[in-house]
Design goal:
alpha/beta, 28% helix
Amino acid sequence: MADRPSWDTYFMDIAHLVATRATCPRLSVGAVLVKDRRILATGYNGAPRGISHCPTDGHKTDWPGGCLKAGHCIRALHAEQNALLSAAMIGTPCAGSTIYVTNQPCNMCAKMIINAGIERVIYQGAYLDEFSLELFRESGIELFRYSDGILEPVQ
């Protein structure tokens, strides 16, 4: 039997697969909410349900004609937000769960993750939002950066 991936690798790989559904061409991000090794919900970044997707020819910064304002896409929800909203729509509590994200959560997502009762955040790519890391530290949530199958505690 071939070597099986660790649970962390398994769920992070799934988060990367979820990211392939992203509709924002600026950055494809996937998130997977997990509790007791079971997937509760997934989410990817993209426009709200029933709203047109981000332009495929790239974002324009001249709002109202484009999707960027202050360097951020204002059309798309973040993957973490969509995962939390998907869980809420089906009545699945997130308290005590772990979220796997292909990129570091921003400070807005960090606040939502904290209030949802998520206990562990495992992310791979950097988002360069120092304030979100500060929020996680203050909240006491376990925070790890995933790199080549290894979890590195973030302090």
